[in-house]
Amino acid sequence: MTIALRPGATASHLFRQVFATSLLLIGALASVAHSAQPPALTPPPKSLQLQAGTLSLTANSSIAATDQALLPLARILADEIFLSSTVKLAVKEGTGSPGDIVLQLATPADATEAYQLTIDKQAVVSAGNYQAVALGTTTLLQLIQADGDQLNLPKLKIADQPDHPFRSVMLDLARRWHPLDTLKETIELARLAKLRYLHLHLSDNQSCTFTSTAFPKLATPGRSYTQAEWKELVQYADQRGITIIPEIDMPGHSGAWVSQAPEAFGTVDPETGKAVSLGIVNMVNEKSYESLDILIGELCETFASSPYIHIGADEIWAENLKELPEYQPYVKQHGLTLAQEGDIGELICHFIVRVNKIVRQHGRQSIAWSGFHHDGTKNVKIPHDIIVMTWDTNPNLIADAGFPVINACWIPLYMVPSQSRGPTAEMIYDWYPQKFDGWYWGEAIDLDPAKPVLGAQICMWEQRYNEVIPILQERVFALNERLWNAEPAGSFADFAARQQPAQQLASQILYPLQIEVAGLLEEGRPWFTDQLEVALSTKIPGAVIRFETGDRWETFPTADSPVYQAPIEIAQTATLAARVYDSQNRPLGGTRQLRFSKIEPAYTYRLLGPIPRTGWEQLPDFAKLTEFATGVAGRMTRDRAQQINRSMFAQLPAVGMIDTRAAGVFNPHAIELNGTLRVPATGEYVVKFVSWDGQGRLLVDDQTLDSDRDREQTLTLKQGEFPFTLQHYFRRDVNNLNLLVKPPGSDKFVPFETMVLPLKDF
């Protein structure tokens, strides 16, 4: 998708630079014909031999699949080429003709991800299995340079394969519902970034999204997906070379599904017939294991292509199980002597062993989060065939115990809304798979090089669906660069330049429409003060754009939505959702949603840094910090507070909230807000700061108040108008500042912003 300035608009009218794309450049090739310079590809292949000359494809060319099994991939490739170039290639089975693209399965077949790409009289992608051929087609896409109705490819030979087999992203479906289209867009993005897996967190305390035939009450109403939808999604992913890994978190993080099916996984009071609130799988009830065997069997059937079942196994609180009458008989029967004496950890180890055995009996391998007793106990030895995703544990302890390790650490792999999106692409590129780090760790831990890491995964915890693609697209190419090749290919600046064509390609395939917005307050933020004019366009021949506007984020166009004819005028806060449809009224690409907020400017702001890793114990002298951005912030509105809170797992108080969230800045920083305060009457004003993880300072009329957390202080103010400065910084997690004031003679706090005047000039 392209967003650009309309004629006559100023630079301040450009909305969200991150979406800016160009259809002119499709591959990584600026000009390679007869050039000694190899094309810029992400990731760089292991071997590339550039030849003289160019292979040109036209609308008469085809994509030939030498094996019928590759026809789905050939059709997908044809669609991707069409979306990115508007050139439509036919798909056929066979060896192809000169000037064709050929997909072939090499013999003998193998399970590696190695592929070969040879471009001469044909463009031939060859590999020992479907997934590896899919990787080769992604490289081919990056090489294509469109020139009108012709596609040019440099003649070359590539032999390539990744160094780390586990390259993945995770979506948290249990805490935040995601439309099926968002999951498909994530799969397409994962394919274009050459990832291998999509891990889906299906259940937690908030909901269970998996629909079970055996346990129909398991799924949370309104939050789950049908078996038909799951199977459609699995096929969609398989055809793109992406394998979905399902996770049913257990025995902890299971409150939703245990409470919905207590007779199978929990406990029912025999006297009342009602569920006993456990918040955890009943690990001392044989019925639970019988039910888990059935449930895991269903998971294996639904996600048939996955070699793995993720069993969770982290953050387990199970002390309440000791109160159950079946506790002592069960642990005694199974020889859990430590559990008999009160060590619940031994029961947890026993549970993990039993569940892993069930997974193995269904022909799959278990993955678990770190956090369980990996050493086991004297009575229970945990098998080392369980793969451990390490997120908060010293990886050397896990590896020393004999477990395969996947890096899923907070830094730079956790994307949590409270962090305002979390680590940047540069942080990911400067990281390496054997480096494990967290916000609360004193320093990063390197895994011994002799203990290999299977790979790594970006974890999208608690994110709303509309944030998924913007966050992931910015980061997945950097992730794969560091997993594909053991050594980085140059600096981050080198990578950033090299990845741009791939980013543009992804944008055009995911959202083949262009958006021009006039009337925005400032670059990077969807804010306006008067009225917006939004123009939509697509370069897909014969296609139309259908759109909807509405008050809610959950606004989606359908095949019956209005067809875009002329620029759309927006005068109030609204969501605009648009999608391209072909001549048969079938959707092309995904839905682009934009939320435009009408605001009243109240502050100018400055962003400052850097902030030390461990933060400050006291607010620093802002005059000694470095300014790296400036802008205008608005008075908090109900809509803006809802926007902030809709992405937060733990809701922040809306009353008195100050907007400290700057556009495009996602990590700890300091912010200074400047405005004008209107004091209605002379007297003492009680000021209350509220900040979960930060500090604040208010400077007004030669008085200064410093605060941390919830604290009340007094200012003596004269009636009149005074300039003021509000300084704030957040340490690691939650960027929030609420400021309340109690005027003289009142017993109630009101938002500080009731005394802040609108900006006159901005």
Overview of the molecule:
The longest helix has 20 residues, at 465-484. This protein is 23% helix and 29% strand. By secondary structure, it is α/β, with parallel strands linked by helices. The model is unreliable at 1-35 (pLDDT under 50). It folds into four domains: 2-22 and 513-598, Immunoglobulin-like (Sandwich); 47-160, Chitobiase, domain 2; 166-483, Alpha-Beta Barrel (TIM Barrel), CATH 3.20.20.80; 601-755, Jelly Rolls, CATH 2.60.120. The radius of gyration is 28 Å and the shape is globular. Helix 7 crosses helix 10. Strands 2, 3, 4, 5, 6, 7, 8 and 9 form an eight-stranded mixed beta sheet that branches. It has an eight-stranded parallel β-barrel with strand order 10-11-12-13-14-15-16-20, surrounded by five helices. The chain contains 16 helices and 37 strands.
Give a quick set of tags describing it.
TIM Barrel; alpha/beta; 4 domains; 29% strand; Immunoglobulin-like; 762 residues; Chitobiase, domain 2; eight-stranded parallel β-barrel; eight-stranded mixed beta sheet; disordered N terminus
Low-confidence stretches: 1-35
User: Structurally, how many domains make up the residues?
Assistant: 4
CATH class of the largest domain: Alpha Beta
Share in helix: 10-25%
Q: Can you count the beta strands?
A: 37
Q: How many angstroms does the end-to-end distance come to?
A: 30 Å
Report the β-strand fraction as a percent range: 25-35%
Structural class: alpha/beta
Question: Under CATH, the topology of the largest domain is which?
Answer: TIM Barrel
Give the radius of gyration: 28 Å
**Shape category:** globular
Largest sheet: 8 strands, mixed
Organism: Blastopirellula marina
Domain Beta-hexosaminidase bacterial type N-terminal: 39-161
Protein name: beta-N-acetylhexosaminidase
Enzyme class: hydrolase
